Known about the structure:
By secondary structure, this protein is of the alpha/beta class. It is built from 15 helices and 15 strands.
Amino acid sequence: MDRPLRFCMVTTFYPPYNFGGDGIFVHRLSNALAQRGHQVEVIHCIDAYRLLARQQPVTPSDDHPNVTVHGLESPFGFLSPLATQQTGVPFFKAARLRQILDSGFDVIHYHNISLVGGPKILEYGTGIKLYTMHEYWLVCPTHVLFRFNRAACVRPHCFLCSLAYKRPPQWWRYLGLLGTAVTQVDAFLAPSRFTEDRHQQMGLNVRIVHLPHFIPSAEVASPTVEQPEGDATGEPYFLFVGRLEKLKGLQTLIPVFRQYHKAQLLIAGRGSYEPQLRKLAEGSVNIHFLGYLSARPLQALYRQAVALIVPSIFFEIFAQVIIEAFGQQTPAIVRDLGAMPEIIAESGGGFVYETDQELVSAMDQLLADPSYRRELGLCGYQSYHRNWTAEAHLRRYLGLIREIEATKAH
């Protein structure tokens, strides 16, 4: 596809009005396209961020000159995303959304749309339409398939589960709105095979294309970078990176490190579950909370860690932190759940564990044999270059758009 295209990214959250990996990925994709000469416009919902964060963002975000960002606000404030969540329709923002989306895009790419437009927004605008499955929102009212906020969901109890999350039932899910809206989308993009299979098992009868996420080369270590393993004091450490929420499983890791004195546990991130986690770690001299970290200091933390540990207890869609670690030639130890084992199997860049004993065994191996740690880190790094670069992603992404365009032309 030689000609520059006009893209619109539609997402609830976008940096700096952002919480997790979905907004970061949209930012990466938008700027990667812009750097290659495409025009990109981004629609996101400032009201939704304020509703959940209850504060202004503290870190700025830069975009390429080819990226235009529309941060939508309504005079009704938090009532706007709440109305959308309940009805599936962007009531208070509908006119502005139509104005932007009807301006003529080659590609409209939907991401997390739950609070910016609901399923109804899939019907707005024309052009090739794509939807990336950053969450399980299409099949789960709570987005995360984490039943009763306790365990990965294998047998849905959606009505009761929504109440457990203190969310009123979304009646539009029972009225056929979603089933009609998804027919407007040309292809749904699944970052992992696991995600693709899970959506199909839960009855989503649409075209799903496997397309993994990526991280830009600017966030990746040079192959000649030395890899000291330890913090400023030289002590070895393992690293956790992510939102401090119950489903991320850090509460299963802290008790292990209370008994494990061979290394430290450094925790980068923040979230609503942080007070409980700090209380759980109280008195432990080898467990340290670092708060939110920007990209550059986080890269150094990855690079010097013995390994990244991802203990999530829900079905991760992709876990971008794993390939962020691989980009710094650092292996990962992940729980045997969701898409994470798929990444380890494809790369050979780490360990998969089920029990605390298996986790400790993996940590012991990496601490005892630095050359083995470097070998696993290099496997992850090489797999990153094969599978998870911007070039690899955009080659498949633009190829899919070319295929859909040709199909529509005939």
